């Protein structure tokens, strides 16, 4: 079956530091890949997505590239802000299945 | 509505009690999903509807769990004879059409079974 593995947290960074959160996956076929973010007290919301190999998703300074050869979708940001403190979830949806499969989430705390 | 609405926000139940959780998706969204999220983990799929049809219920953990969406909009997740292991946040999400689109999540119902 499908699975998503995220790097374990929590991750604590200083403001303006570089961020990488690793995500690898196992799936049949050609899944779409997503990063969702959950800010404190709020519901999950889509951060970015990529639907085919070599696609790069980007939003709010965050980027992730769909790497089929390494089955990865690592999240990166060049300079984090305090407001980026949240829980980040990597997820995939197979083309022939309705459901999404999520990783366990990585908690990011950015200190001023 | 403006977003996916779930109620109640919090629910405390005594073990053995039946509970019903409501989800009101974004107006016009065809697909509706229920997920269960345990503390410190990612959402786990429970079931999926396209309009009123329940297309996948493979994630429901036991026959105590039942979901319906009779008119293709509002959905209810019912848990009978609740157990302590049912304690979790129950998330509802909807998408406009095809399933590979992004999910719009509600804020969830936090269920605590004592």
Coarse structural class of chain A: mainly beta
Largest sheet of chain A: 6 strands, mixed
Tell me the Rg of chain B in angstroms.
13 Å
User: What would the average pLDDT of chain A be, to the nearest integer?
Assistant: 94
- Round the Cα radius of gyration of chain A to an integer and report it: 13 Å
What oligomeric arrangement do these chains adopt?
Answer: heterodimer
What coarse outline of chain A follows from CA principal-axis ratios?
A: globular
Helix content of chain B: under 10%
Number of strands of chain B: 11
Describe what you observe in this structure:
With 112 residues, chain A is mostly beta strands. Chain A has no helices and 12 strands. Chain A has strands at residues 3-6, 11-14, 19-21, 23-26, 32-38, 45-50, 56-59, 62-65, 75-77, 86-93, 100-102, 106-111. In chain A, strands 2, 5, 6, 10, 11 and 12 form a 6-stranded mixed β-sheet that branches. In chain A, strands 3-9-8-7 form a 4-stranded antiparallel β-sheet, with no helix packed on it. The N and C termini of chain A lie far apart (41 Å). With 114 residues, chain B is mainly β. Helix content of chain B is 0%, strand content 48%. Chain B contains no helices and 11 strands. Chain B has strands at residues 5-7, 10-13, 19-24, 31-37, 44-50, 53-56, 65-68, 75-79, 88-95, 104-105, 109-113. In chain B, strands 2, 4, 5, 6, 9, 10 and 11 form a 7-stranded mixed β-sheet that branches. Chain B has a 4-stranded antiparallel β-sheet with strand order 1-3-8-7, with no helix packed on it. In chain B, β7 (65-68) and β8 (75-79) form a beta hairpin. Chain B is globular. The mean pLDDT of chain B is 94.
């Amino acid at each position: 079956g499908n699975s998503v593995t995220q790097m374990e947290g929590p991750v604590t960074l200083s403001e303006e530091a570089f961020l990488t959160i690793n995500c690898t996956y196992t799936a049949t076929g050609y899944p779409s890949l997503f990063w969702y973010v959950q800010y404190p007290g709020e519901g999950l919301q889509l951060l970015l997505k990529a639907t085919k190999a070599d696609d790069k998703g980007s939003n709010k300074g965050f980027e992730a590239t769909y790497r089929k050869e390494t089955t990865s979708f690592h999240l990166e940001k060049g300079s984090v802000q305090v407001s980026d403190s949240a829980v980040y979830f990597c997820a995939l949806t197979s083309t022939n299945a309705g459901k999404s499969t999520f990783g366990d989430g990585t908690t990011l705390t950015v200190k001023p | 509505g403006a977003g996916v609405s779930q109620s109640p926000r919090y629910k405390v139940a005594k073990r053995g009690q039946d509970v019903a959780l409501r989800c009101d998706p974004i107006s016009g969204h065809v697909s509706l999903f229920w997920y269960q999220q345990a503390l410190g983990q990612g959402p786990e799929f429970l079931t999926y509807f396209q309009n009123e049809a329940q297309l996948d219920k493979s994630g429901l953990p036991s026959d105590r769990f039942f979901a319906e969406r009779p008119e293709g909009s509002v959905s209810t997740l019912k848990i009978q004879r609740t157990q302590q292991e049912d304690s979790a946040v129950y998330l509802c999400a909807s998408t406009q059409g095809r399933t590979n689109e992004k999910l719009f999540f509600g804020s969830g119902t936090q269920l605590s079974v004592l």
